[in-house]
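Quick illustration for those who missed Monday's session on complexes.
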Amino acid sequence: MADSDGVPDLPEELLEALSQQAAEILLSARHVIALTGAGISAESGIPTFRGKEGLWTKHGEPPLNQYQNFMTSPETWWDRVIERRRNPDELSAAVREAVPNDGHFAMAELERLGVLKHIITQNIDNLHRIAGSAQITEIHGNSQWLRCLGCGTRAPFEEIPEQRPPRCDDCGGLVKTDTVMFGEPIPRDALQTCIQESDLADCILLVGTTAVVSPAADFAWEIHSRGHPLIEVNLDPTVITDRCQVAIHGKAGEIMSRIVDKVKRGSTG
Ligand code: OAD
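Prediction with 2'-O-acetyl adenosine-5-diphosphoribose bound:
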C-alpha cells in the first residue's frame, strides 16, 4: 500500500508498535533533545535539499564559497537579497507561504508535556516557533532575522535596509541575513547552546534530516557514542538509521502525532 504521494505505508501494527517503543524511550529519558531537518517542513510545502524531489537533486548544489563571495562583495550580495525579496526563488517563495504542519505541532506538544527539552533545527523557516516551540536553536539561522557579524546582535528583517551593505547600530559591523551560508562559521551563541544541550542529552529524536551535515549531525553521533538511544522519524533510511534504537519510516506529521498520542497516554499512566 502507498498513500497519495506514493510513500509506502508501514503496516498498521508495525507502526503502532514502533510508535509505542519510541514513546517509551522518550518517557524514560531525562533530557531528550531533537534534531530536525528539511523533511519536517516538507508537508508545509517547503522543498527539501537532497532526495528525489530535493532542490539540489534537481538544480545542483550551491557554490561552497558563498560566504567568501559575500565577504568579498557584500554590496553585490545584498543587491541579490533585495532582488530575491521582490522576485522570490522557489525556496524563498515556499518559506514565505508556509505554515506549520502536524509534525511541528507535535514537537511543540512534546515540549509542553515536559518530554522534549530542546530542538536543534537546521531549518531557517521559523515554523517551529510559529507552532509554539520555545526551546529552539536554529543552527543554520532564521531567514526572518538579520545578524551582525561583529557582535552577533540580531534584529528582525522587516524593511529593506537603506544602507548597502547595512552596518550594525551597536558596533558598526557588517550585517547579513541570519541564514548561515556555505563556508560561514556557525554563530558562536547557537553552537554553544547546541553543545550544552547535546552534553545534557540522554536521547535524541531525529526528524526529517539526512544527518549528513556537520556540526548538526555530529551531536547525534556523539550522543550515540555515549550509549544513549537515538530515535529516527524520516521518509527514508539515512546514514544513521542502523544506530537508532527505533527508526520509523514515513511522514513526520503522521508519525510524530502518533508518538505524541502514546507519550500522553504513557505520561498519564
Ligand atoms: P535534506 O534535504 O538533506 O534531507 C531531508 C530528509 O527529510 C530526507 O532524508 C528525506 O527523506 C526526509 N523527508 C522528506 N519528506 C519528509 C517527510 N514528509 N517526513 C519525514 N521526512 C521527510 O535536509 P537536511 O538534513 O535538513 O544547510 O539538510 C541539512 C542541511 O543541508 C540544511 O540545513 C542545509 C544543507 O546544507 C545549509 O544550507 C546551511
